[in-house]
Write a structure and sequence with these properties.
With 245 residues, the protein is of the alpha/beta class. The chain has one domain (7-235): 3-Layer(aba) Sandwich (Rossmann fold). Helices cover 42% and strands 15% of the residues. It has helices at 16-27, 39-49, 66-78, 104-132, 153-173, 191-197, 210-220; strands at 7-10, 31-36, 56-60, 85-88, 135-140, 178-185, 232-235. α2 links the parallel β2 (31-36) and β3. The longest helix has 29 residues, at 104-132. The mean pLDDT is 91.
């Protein structure tokens, strides 16, 4: 895929889209560092990835606060791992709650996990990429980031923010050999989606499989995507563009 020694850090990798991206990366010979909150799931996925002949590592970390970010950076330092691919995928999907009924602590937690700490983590990873004049960053947003919706204020603000962050950062670091892109999935069948909206929400819906998003992500970090940066890619699959995610 590249003449570079590629090692990717994937947040929210314990299930769903993050897990699928990790598997697809490993199948394409990319070393992976998994992060997420569930240590047991991360350990199981880590063992699975090693079957593909790559180096795989995991660190359990909560990205709702700075302690979680510091834990990741310290792990990378102690393990002598230099990241040149970053996938900001970690996200909280909340049920539909009108702002007046939203607990502000929970609202801020969504903002921190989905947006603020993705930016902070990126800032800490960037210096190595800049020093090597090479890097790939993919932010996993959502089609929900394209437009607001009732009861979705926290989630959609974060996803809209990731879109703007992608465009701004791409303009800053292209001269450093770093490409930054964003994927906006439509309806994807994940555990987080079902937890937020219930089993009934997936009935009779043309939802994508996480692997479909993973393959797009793998393209964006490959040498074949050298002409693509600052791009916001809508990935609907068979799902209705107006589907409320």
């Amino acid at each position: 895929m590249s003449d570079k020694n590629q090692i990717a850090l994937i947040t929210g990798a314990s299930r769903g889209i993050g897990k699928a991206i990790a598997i697809d990366f490993a199948q394409n010979g990319i070393d992976v560092v998994l992060t997420g909150r569930n240590k047991n799931r991360l350990s199981d996925i880590n063992d699975e990835l090693k079957n593909y002949g790559v180096n795989s590592y995991f660190i359990s970390s909560d990205l709702s606060n700075d302690l979680g970010i510091n834990k990741i950076i310290e792990f990378l330092r102690e393990s002598n791992l230099n990241i040149n691919i970053l996938v900001n995928n970690a996200a909280i999907i909340h049920e539909k709650i009108n702002l007046i009924d939203f607990n502000m602590e929970e609202w801020e937690n969504v903002i921190n996990v989905n947006l603020v700490n993705a930016v902070k983590l990126t800032r800490l990873i960037l210096p190595y990429m800049i020093s090597r004049k090479y890097g790939k960053i993919v932010n996993i947003s959502s089609i929900g980031g394209r437009k607001g919706a009732a009861g979705r204020s926290a989630y959609r603000i974060t996803k809209a923010g990731l879109i703007s962050f992608t465009e701004s950062l791409a303009a800053e670091v292209k001269k450093e050999g770093i490409d930054v892109n964003c994927i906006c999935p439509g309806a994807v069948l994940t555990e987080g989606y079902i937890e937020a909206f219930g089993e009934d929400s997936i009935k009779d819906k043309n939802m994508m499989h996480p692997s479909e998003i993973a393959k797009l992500c793998t393209f964006l970090i490959s040498s074949d995507s050298s002409s693509v940066t600052g791009s916001i890619i809508d990935a609907f699959g068979p799902s209705n563009p107006l589907f409320n995610v």
